[in-house]
Structure formats: C-alpha cells, structure tokens
Amino acid sequence: MIAVRGLAKRFGYRWVLRNLDLDVAPGEIVALLGPNGAGKTTLLRILAALAKPSLGQVSVAGARLPDEARSARAQLGFVAHQPMLYADLSAADNLRFFARLYGLDGGRVWELLETVGLAGLDRQPVRSFSRGMQQRLSIARALLHRPRVLLLDEAHSSLDQEAAARLDGLLAELAAEGCAILLASHDLARASMLASRIAVLTDGHIAAEIPRADFTDDLAGRYQAAVEAARA
Predict the structure, then answer these.
(1) Average pLDDT, the chain
(2) What confidence tier does 228 reach under pLDDT thresholds 50, 70, 90?
(3) Region class of 154: left (phi > 0), else alpha (psi between -120 and 50), else beta
C-alpha cells in the first residue's frame, strides 16, 4: 500500500531525505522512529501528497506521487502535528465539512465522535477544546472516508491515558481490517506494543528495520545502536 524507492528531498542546499526505501503492506502497522530532525514529518508529508519529492519513486494505494496526488488523497488519512480544524465550527460541523469534501453524506459523523470519545461534545466550538480533544477530532476526521492507508505523525501526543488506549485499540482494529498504517513516534514502548515492524529513520534514510520477532528486552539498545551506526 506504501512503496518508496530511492526517495530524496532537498530544501535549498540541504538534503533532508536521501536514498530512502520503505514498504508498508495492507494490514501492517509500521512504526517510524528516529531522532528529532531525522525527516519523519517530511516523509509523511510526501506520502500524504502535501509535499513533492526531489528524487525517487513513491506510490500510495497504487497511486503514483506526485502525478496522481488526488487519487492518493482519496484513499489515505493523515493525522499531522497541527490539528487542521476550523476553530469556530463545532466538532460535528467540522466533520460534516470534511465529509462533503470527500463527497460523503456525513453519516459517519456521530459514529466517529463516539469512537474518539467526543460524542457529548459535538456542538461545542473547537476553539474551546483542549489540545488533546482537538487531536481526537483530527483522528476522527482522518477516518471519515474509510482510508486504505493511515499516516500518523505523533498521533498520541497530547492524548490522556484513556484516549491513547482508545487510539491503540482503534489502530489494531483498522490493521485487522487491512488498513496499512505508518506511525511516526518517539515512543519506543508504545511502538513495540503496536507495530509489526519498526523502521529506524536517521540522517534522512532508513538505517534499520526491526521485525516484531526481534523485539526483545534490549529493543531500546538495538534502536540506539542503529542510530549511532548511521551517524558513524
């Protein structure tokens, strides 16, 4: 569902991503871990068709990027650092608005508000929401059109323990239904619970991939060794 070959991205004279290869299969949760500045957000923005690669080949749900960006966007959900919501609209009206953009009738609005724990707050304006509540609504928005690919950039940030556990369960359900999930995170413990594979991104490329069979008590040490080896 996600296929990346030789991806590179340059901002001015600086290469943020270089010679990056990555695959995510249907029903797979891949955790993308790496230090600050490794290029995780840039990679997700390229996969979400919000930025263009400088070099390489990228496809999402069978759509080549950037040429078939519209087709890709129709099949993916993206939870970014910023909630990208309309502050003056209510929670329900935000979801109705985005549903119309996808050509939907909004029938899933109440179901998704319930799923993310906001059912009783549907009429409140988003500007009154805490950062964690806005994050919950962003997750609901990303799922409106039943995406085949889900991209999450630190999606657990700002969530309380209950909401984070709710998201964990939701991701497991989506993967079981065949959704391909790429989860950028700094939380190695959570990644080890959710992911079928960890991809270590550092210095702009995938330095190592760790399958679930190799998740051990020294997973943190293995992750750190991969980061340090890439820097050597």
Answers:
(1) 94
(2) confident
(3) left
